[in-house]
Backbone:
């Protein structure tokens, strides 16, 4: 009974911290920041959300999963529950890794697992699949840590949680294999392939191979934060390539001092961990080494990674190396918990009173929050909900009612916007998802003044046409473009490309958007074989997750039925 109460306290504590992050997320509207774009209405008949378009399937299967769920649940609610639940779930999972320690140490593990620079930076960067995957990684370890009693349902659902994108899916597989190689590699591989099938098949079914720009290695390399230097920044789970998303507190001297203290406790915890229960030390340390090595690669030896990306374009997934610090988070959380447990014992020994152990543990518990206070309140107000202007819904109606054939092109042809209605915060072009047609957007990123070539060959062809002063609308029609939506605020005073001269104006849908029509567009459709393969992949993943969820429900019902008998036995005759 006492163990259950401790478990409940950990859950409540993790939820309180998650709600502290989500303080400004009350009410309606969506959180729109960098790569995080959510929309009011998702349509299921777009090819790109399933991974059969020309673009690299970066948002597969995440977009498809949300599109399906939004058919029955309000997307606003989905976004809130997903983010808050993922943050809290990560803390609970980390605490389960140290369930042999006291309650205080478990709270420390939960706190550091969900309250750290990695979470803050990836939240602002809008990489919500990474946040969800981070929450699932400790649960993968929990599922496979005992080779005699592998928790298959937990493993399946945790792997599925990591399979929302290519990079996170690979992380989930790595964690499962490193932590559970004694539990059956074949079982892990089969489950991993099943839940990751949508993006695996979509990647191989593309019309063109993946071609990543090696220049992105240095652009996405780890960055130093404040006075911590590269080593201190990475050791404290920071270093994201985009310095605009770094919390302000990370640049202060006070935070640097607190980070040093935190790392000293982590180091102490590693020593104590090695002297005690070391069952998880080797796998979690191995994962931490892998995570830190990948995070530092673009900084320490960028030339070697550039050569790899140049030789094999699919290796471009390693360019954003600090994303893989997620692999190190469980190790750091467990080590800090062991350090807190040791310091609590030392404080109690000094005063010869075991009750004083709570003082040492509480001091460590406060360190992650004190070192990063601006994770609270939506990362210091950087993540607050906004509503789409009415113009967007009106434009969606114009596009839906249009009988013009072909896909949609969004202008200006830039990947990101900073619309005034989003409080001037940067976000990837919402038009890529908002309308009910496959949409061609520019995936050529500009980082620190350097423009990196995009991976979508069709987008490159469109960019070439738009840059040609002699181009005509027929050139866009040949590429399958039938409609063009122009964001007038983002376009500003810049003239429209010559390729749009003579296009039909379907009328302004409002003050911010305008729709143009191009006749004679040629459809760009995937092969029947590609559609069949991707459909089969989605069916396999859905079946695998569905069976696991069914087992959860049936087992839950069984426990509820047994509950009255258990309560009667507990109450006595």
Residues:
């Amino acid at each position: 009974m006492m163990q259950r109460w401790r478990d409940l306290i950990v859950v409540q504590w993790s939820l309180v911290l998650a709600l502290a992050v989500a303080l400004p997320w009350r009410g309606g509207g969506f959180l729109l920041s960098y790569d995080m774009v959510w929309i009011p209405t998702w349509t299921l008949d777009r090819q790109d959300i399933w991974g059969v378009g020309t673009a690299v399937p970066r948002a597969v299967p995440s977009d498809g999963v949300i599109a399906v769920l939004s058919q029955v649940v309000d997307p606003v609610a989905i976004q809130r529950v997903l983010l808050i639940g993922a943050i809290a779930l990560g803390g609970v999972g980390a605490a389960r890794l140290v369930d042999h320690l006291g309650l205080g140490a478990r709270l420390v593990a939960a706190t550091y697992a969900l309250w750290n620079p990695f979470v803050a930076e990836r939240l602002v960067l809008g990489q919500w699949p990474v946040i969800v995957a981070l929450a699932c990684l400790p649960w993968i370890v929990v599922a496979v840590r005992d080779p005699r009693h592998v928790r298959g349902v937990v493993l399946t659902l945790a792997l599925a949680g990591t399979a929302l994108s290519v990079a996170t899916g690979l992380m989930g597989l790595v964690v499962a294999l490193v932590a559970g190689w004694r539990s059956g590699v074949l079982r892990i591989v089969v489950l991993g392939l099943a839940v990751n099938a949508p993006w695996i098949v979509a990647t191989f079914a593309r019309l063109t191979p993946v071609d990543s720009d090696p220049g992105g290695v240095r652009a996405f390399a780890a960055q130093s934060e404040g006075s911590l230097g590269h080593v201190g920044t990475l050791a404290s789970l920071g270093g994201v390539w985009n310095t605009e998303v770094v919390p302000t507190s990370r640049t202060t001297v006070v935070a640097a001092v607190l980070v040093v203290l935190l790392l000293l406790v982590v180091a102490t915890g590693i020593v104590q961990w090695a002297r005690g229960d070391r069952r998880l030390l080797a796998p979690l340390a191995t994962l931490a080494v892998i995570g830190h090595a990948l995070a530092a690669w673009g900084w320490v030896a960028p030339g070697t990674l550039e050569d790899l990306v140049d030789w094999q374009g699919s290796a471009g997934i390693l360019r954003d190396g600090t994303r893989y610090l997620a692999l190190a988070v469980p190790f750091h959380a467990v080590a800090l918990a062991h350090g807190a447990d040791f310091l609590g014992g030392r404080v109690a020994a000094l005063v010869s009173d075991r009750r004083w152990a709570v003082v040492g543990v509480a001091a460590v518990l406060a360190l992650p929050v004190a070192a990063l206070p601006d994770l609270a309140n939506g990362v210091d107000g950087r993540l607050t909900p906004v509503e789409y202007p009415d113009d967007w819904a009106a434009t969606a109606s114009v596009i839906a009612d249009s009988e013009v054939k072909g896909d949609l092109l969004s202008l200006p042809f830039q990947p990101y916007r900073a619309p005034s209605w989003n409080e001037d915060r940067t976000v990837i072009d919402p038009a890529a998802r908002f309308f009910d047609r496959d949409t061609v957007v520019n995936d050529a990123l500009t980082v620190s003044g350097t423009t990196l070539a995009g991976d979508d060959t069709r987008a490159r062809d469109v960019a070439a046409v738009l840059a040609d002063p002699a181009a005509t609308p027929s050139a866009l029609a040949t590429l399958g473009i039938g409609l063009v939506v122009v964001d007038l605020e983002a376009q500003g005073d810049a003239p429209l490309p010559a390729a749009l001269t003579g296009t039909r104006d379907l009328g302004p849908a409002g003050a911010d958007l305008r729709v143009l029509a191009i006749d004679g567009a040629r459809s760009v459709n995937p092969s029947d074989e590609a559609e069949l393969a991707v459909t089969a992949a989605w069916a396999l993943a859905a079946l695998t997750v569905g069976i696991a969820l069914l087992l959860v429900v049936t087992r839950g019902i069984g426990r509820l039925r047994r509950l009255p008998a258990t309560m009667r036995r507990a109450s006595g005759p």
Summary: The longest strand covers residues 481-487. The chain has a mean pLDDT of 92. The chain has 24 helices and nine strands. Residues 153 and 549 are 8 Å apart (CA to CA).
